[in-house]
Write a structure and sequence with these properties.
By secondary structure, the protein is an alpha/beta fold. It folds into three domains: 161 residues, Periplasmic binding protein-like II (D-Maltodextrin-Binding Protein, domain 2, 3-Layer(aba) Sandwich), CATH 3.40.190; 137 residues, D-Maltodextrin-Binding Protein, domain 2, CATH 3.40.190; 204 residues, 3-Layer(aba) Sandwich (Rossmann fold), CATH 3.40.50. Helix content is 39%, strand content 19%. Strands 5, 6, 7, 8, 9 and 10 form a six-stranded mixed β-sheet that branches. A six-stranded mixed β-sheet has the order 14-13-12-15-16-17, with helices on both faces. Strands 1-3-2-4-11 form a five-stranded mixed β-sheet. The longest helix is centred in the N-terminal third of the chain and has 20 residues. It is elongated, with a radius of gyration of 29 Å. 44% of the residues are buried.
Length: 546
């Protein structure tokens, strides 16, 4: 056999060095922004360039594969230039949404990302690797509760009587596929039908995120509940942590891993070809073969990843078109505060409340009074009422929008003021004019006191049933609020019709602000909304209060 030529040896050495750098350096880098590729020197033909954006979890193996691919093509007289850049999946999704600097190939950590970025491929993007989402616990907790945690799987975090009360911590769903698919698994464990939203949001209320860029080990320190902490994260993250503890003899403890027996989602690292250029697509097809080669399989194993076909524990199929966007929106809304102006329409309030003792007006007052006592101090509320008196202003502000816990000069707070002012509101016999002008004015008031990090709402409480109002007033209100509504700075109108469905015209007003109109059969329905104020944030269906 002839010895390899100097040019071949040089290519082989470049592959070895590049692969070592990729697998060594890449294992300690957790963010995007770095890029490495084999040199293009020694190639005299036309270059075939391919830009690849890979999640940092798989970027080292992808870089090693690119070095081998480039070297093999050069040895065959071709001039490919596959360049791999490590970039967080959430950041890369933003690049696709902005449609600037888009790579030819994208390897995010989860198939949820192409859907979120509006870049879902026509067919199923092939998986390059996999890593199941598993539960990490302390050694002490594992010895006592690992079997129970594995048996209950994602249902272990529902509130209830158990020991211990597991405290879930997960990666940021806005930035990581692991966080997003964890939310989808929790949502699936809550079931469907009546009570599903209750069960899901009850878990999310207590879940915490691991600070972006921090390792899984940080979730077990600095908190009073660290002994019962359960971290939902990719298997790769725990394998890498335990390997570092073992090799470096650091002052740290290995993290025990529990595998959900009822199924768990996987990070599947899809290979998304984004370019439409025929030549680059041919290069992309060739690079895919290298990524699925035995050499790359070994690199993936050393990086703590599995091959695409391995499926123990049982895969939980939770990624569907639109599902990731929906669950991320739910998570985002749960982090918002409430900024609400309640507008009471006491017209015809003396009508009896069906199925309850007292009047519809009594039900409104009871619902608000109880609600003000239940909502957290950092929620902001104001209160207006219709006056029923003729004049230029048919409504009366009772208290401006302020945080419920805000202190007053007399030592009280906004919550107490609201309760006191509410007792001075009286029902009005017949129908009071001016509801639509009052809604327009309340909308402007909430917009003026807009809470940037909150859900901004005009909450209209009225006796249900048809109303008589000039068509010009209704049309003016629909046009006015429809023109004022800004999806990036939304203020929504929510109408609660006590005892009957809200008038269709009020439903139109609510609809143009992305709000809704709901029938309230009993005051307890509104109390549940206030008690679980997160449902005011995430509820989009007319029957959510039930």
């Amino acid at each position: 056999m002839n010895p390899p030529s100097r040019r071949a040896r040089r290519s082989r050495d470049q592959v070895t060095v590049a692969a070592a750098m990729a697998l060594g350096v890449g294992l300690v880098l957790g963010g995007g922004g770095w890029a490495l590729a084999a040199r293009d020197s020694g190639c005299d033909g036309a270059r075939e360039r391919l830009s690849v954006s890979a999640d940092p979890a798989i970027a080292p193996a992808a870089l090693a594969a690119a070095a081998r691919f480039n070297a093999a093509r050069r040895a065959a007289g071709q001039c490919p230039s596959v360049r791999v850049t490590a970039r967080g999946s959430g950041e890369a999704a933003g690049v696709f949404r902005a449609a600037r600097g888009v790579p030819d190939v994208w390897i995010p950590d989860s198939s949820a990302w192409p859907d979120l970025a509006g870049r879902r491929p026509a067919g199923q993007a092939p998986s390059i690797a996999s890593s199941p989402i598993v539960f990490g616990v302390s050694a002490t907790m594992a010895s006592r509760y690992r079997r129970d945690l594995e048996r209950r799987s994602w249902g272990a975090f529902r509130p209830g009587r158990r020991t211990p009360e597991f405290h879930l911590r997960l990666p940021d769903p806005a930035r990581t596929g692991a966080g997003t698919v964890s939310l989808l698994a929790l949502q699936a464990s809550a079931g469907s039908g009546k009570g599903a939203l209750d069960r899901f949001t009850a878990v999310l209320r207590t879940a915490e995120t691991i600070p972006n860029g921090k390792g899984v080990e940080t979730a077990f320190g600095g908190g009073g509940d660290e002994g019962s902490a359960v971290v939902a994260a990719p298997e790769q993250a725990f394998l890498k942590h335990n390997e570092r503890v073992k090799q470096q003899d650091r002052d740290g403890e290995p993290i025990a891993v529990a595998y959900p027996r009822l199924g768990t989602p996987y990070l599947d690292f899809p290979y998304v070809v984004a370019t439409s250029d025929a030549k680059r697509r041919r290069v992309a097809d060739g690079f895919l073969k290298e990524l699925r080669s035995p050499r790359t399989a070994g690199d993936l194993k050393r990086a703590g990843l599995r091959g695409p076909g391995q499926s123990a524990p049982r895969p939980l199929a939770v990624v569907r078109p639109g599902a990731a966007a929906g669950v991320q929106e739910t998570w985002r809304k749960l982090g918002q505060g409430l900024n609400v102006l309640a507008l009471i329409d006491p017209s015809r309030g003396g009508a009896p409340m069906p199925g309850a003792t007292g009047t519809r007006f009594d039900a409104m007052v009871k619902a608000l009074s109880t609600g003000f006592a239940l909502v957290p101090d950092d929620s902001s509320f104001g209160l207006w009422t219709l006056t029923g008196a003729p004049g230029r202003r048919p409504y009366r502000p009772l208290t401006p929008i302020r945080e419920l816990g805000a202190r007053t000069q007399d030592g009280g707070n906004q919550r107490l003021i609201l309760q006191e002012r509410l007792q001075h509101v009286r029902p009005i016999r017949g129908e009071a004019a001016g509801l639509y002008p009052a809604i327009r004015a309340a909308y402007r008031e909430v917009d003026r006191h807009y809470g940037r990090d909150g859900l901004n709402v005009v909450l209209v409480l009225t006796a249900g049933g048809p109303r008589s109002a000039p068509g010009t007033e209704i049309a003016r209100t629909v046009k006015n609020l429809g023109g004022a509504f800004n999806a990036r700075r939304p203020v929504s109108v929510i109408v609660l019709g006590f005892g009957a469905e809200a008038d269709p015209s009020l439903r139109k007003v609510a609809a143009v602000t992305d709000g809704g109109a709901y029938k309230i059969d009993k005051p307890e329905m509104v109390m549940r909304l206030f008690l679980r104020s997160d449902q005011l944030r995430v509820c989009d269906e007319p029957r959510c209060p039930e």
